[in-house]
From TrEMBL:
InterPro entries: Cell_div_FtsL. One of its GO terms (biological process) is FtsZ-dependent cytokinesis. Belongs to the FtsL family. The gene is ftsL. The chain crosses the membrane at residues 24-43. It is found in: Cell inner membrane; Cell membrane. The keyword Cytoplasm does not apply. One of its GO terms (cellular component) is plasma membrane. Keywords: Cell cycle, Cell division, Cell inner membrane, Cell membrane, Membrane, Transmembrane, Transmembrane helix. This is Cell division protein FtsL. Pfam families: FtsL (PF04999). The keyword Cell division applies. Essential cell division protein. May link together the upstream cell division proteins, which are predominantly cytoplasmic, with the downstream cell division proteins, which are predominantly periplasmic.
Amino acid sequence: MLENSERYPLQNILMEDLFSSTKLVILLLSLILISAMATIWVTHQTRGLISENGQLILQRQALEDEYRNLQLQEATEGDSTRVESIAISTLKMKRVDSNQEVVILE
């Protein structure tokens, strides 16, 4: 048996045992932690991208609505009967008679 004066270095034995026999356990535990952190990071990135995608879809819809409104406005304002009615009523313009026309030849 051991005498009272002889002591075992318990801390050294525990550390030796921990790092020698359980290297695989520590490696697997660290891989699990890394995998968990990677999963959290990917989930965060995905949620951010989904939110940005939703905002871009709303912007696209707003731009499409504005484009349709501009096309309708262009079609309305470019109509020759509307332009002619504005010219006659607001600007008091008349059609040019053929005897008032001047043709310039070079």
